[in-house]
Specification:
The chain is an alpha/beta fold. The chain is built from 11 helices and 26 strands. 27% of the residues lie in helices and 19% in strands. The longest helix is centred in the C-terminal third of the chain and has 18 residues. The N terminus and C terminus are likely disordered.
Length: 466
């Protein structure tokens, strides 16, 4: 249910500010609340749940009527808040929205959120002399300002659609997958879906039920993972031990599983991919191969030109099209941060462990990852680490070491994945969980008690001064 905005308050000093009330924002707020830290949380819209709320008024809604998880609930749920066991393996967007509302209400987070309050600026400010405290000023719509020692950016990276720039002009209807809601829009039309990520495949399969004809365009070919293998959700076959396996061994294992369960893409009517499995972000679909095999979806190559009511493709063919859906991903944007504070270049962020921008103490990003596996569960681990950094229980390495890690990580991404903006935030589920666990264990503050005394939550300091 939509919530009303709390009344504006003058500038205050809190331990942390959380931006956003989607999964990343809720994980962040819960970690802060558990440690007794005083925080403010701002949400642009009037409800929690982020993109999973199909009618979210914050502009971030990316759900459609037929949307379900493409990772299983066991791998997706917050570790501390399991989803009900009677729920299906792959819950719908309605269930996911309900889950996040329940998490927020159960832990007393909802009443702490200032709704309908878009953050317009996050600016570093001179340190006020408090030991260990960074300085930030957060400005929300209406001019409300909050000063804080830490800012947790958790507003997501699926809000600004990226649309393919194509030569020529198109006479029909065209929209981004972000705007898609109901399959009825495809009834009786000749449809082209550009992009073979999870949304592109879902939408093409939806269109196949009602459209006259469906074309699905892919530039590189694609490996399609089934949602089930050997009677279980396929991500249940991935175990924590995978964090210790060499990548080549893990890839060979998955290639064998996929080959046994569904065969090769070229054997199922798809073009041969120009890369091996896990060298691009994998796509999961329970329906695509059947739709292609039934002739309901035709997989085609790259689009080269729009030509009135037709589209030309790389192989020279020209097809009539009434409606184009761009399932081409999103631009990562941080509109409230000046580029000199933290720049975004080609969807790439310079972040240590995908969380911390070196040289910007007190600034953290939560949820800016794209996982081979579920993303949501990773956010809880990020938030727990951040809360330990804020309280002083953990410390960061020197700035030069963080920058060296970022450079090495960028080289590893370039060596493993296709060169694409889609892979700038890529991580492996179990390897990333292990990396965060190691970070938290190895970098315990040796003088945590002394530091803790200088980082007492703001409300305690106030009571002492009063």
């Amino acid at each position: 249910m939509p919530r009303t905005r709390r009344s504006g308050k003058p500038a205050v000093d809190v331990d942390a500010v959380v931006i956003g009330a989607g999964p990343a924002g809720l994980a962040s707020a819960r970690s802060l609340r558990r440690r007794g830290l005083e925080y403010r949380q701002f949400e642009k819209g009037s409800m929690v749940g982020g993109l999973w709320q199909i009618d979210n008024d914050n502009g971030a809604a990316a759900a459609y009527r037929t949307l379900h998880l493409n990772t299983s609930r066991h791998r997706t749920q917050f570790r501390s808040d399991p989803m009900p066991e009677h729920w299906p393996d792959y819950p719908s967007h309605e269930l996911m929205a309900r889950y996040f509302e329940d998490v927020a209400d159960r832990h007393g987070l909802t009443q702490q959120i200032t709704f309908n309050a878009e953050v317009t600026a996050v600016e570093p400010r001179p340190c006020d002399g408090a030991p260990g405290r960074a300085g930030w000023r957060v400005t929300a719509a209406g001019g409300e300002q909050v000063t804080t020692g830490a800012v947790l950016v958790a507003n997501g990276h699926h809000a600004v659609p990226k649309v393919a720039v194509l030569p020529g002009s198109f006479d029909g209807e065209r929209f981004h997958s972000h705007a898609y809601r109901d399959p009825e829009v495809f009834a009786g039309k000749r449809v082209l879906v550009i992009g073979v990520g999870n949304s592109g495949m879902d939408i093409a399969c939806d269109a196949a039920l009602l459209a006259e004809h469906v074309l699905l365009s892919t530039r590189h070919g694609v490996h399609v993972l089934p949602k089930y293998a050997f009677g279980r959700p396929i991500d249940h076959l991935s175990l924590p031990a995978g964090a210790y396996l060499p990548f080549r061994a893990e890839r060979a294992l998955y290639e064998l599983i996929v080959r046994l369960v569904v065969g090769r893409p070229e054997d199922r009517g798809l073009p041969t991919p120009d890369h091996r499995l896990l060298e691009a972000h994998p796509t999961a679909s329970a329906q695509l191969y059947d739709r292609v095999g039934h002739g309901d979806i035709e997989v085609v190559g790259d689009v080269t030109e729009l030509d009135g009511g037709h589209v030309r493709f790389a192989d020279g063919r020209r097809e009539p099209v009434d409606l184009i859906v761009d399932a081409t991903g999103y631009e990562v944007t941080l509109p409230f941060l000046a580029p000199e504070v933290l720049a975004v270049e080609a969807n790439r962020l310079e972040l240590y462990q995908r969380v911390v921008p070196p040289g910007r103490p007190g600034l953290y990003l939560v949820g800016f990852v794209q996982s081979v596996g579920a993303n949501i569960a990773l956010m809880e681990h990020q938030a727990e680490w951040i809360a330990e950094l804020i309280t002083g229980r953990c410390v960061l390495p020197p700035v030069d070491q963080m920058r060296a890690w970022i450079a090495a990580d960028r080289q590893q991404l370039a060596a493993r994945y296709l060169r694409s903006e889609r892979h700038t935030m890529q991580v492996d589920y179990w390897r990333y969980l292990r990396a965060i666990a190691i970070e938290r264990a190895r970098r315990r503050n040796p003088v945590a008690r002394a530091v803790q005394q200088t980082l007492v939550p703001t409300r305690v300091l106030r009571s002492r001064s009063g």
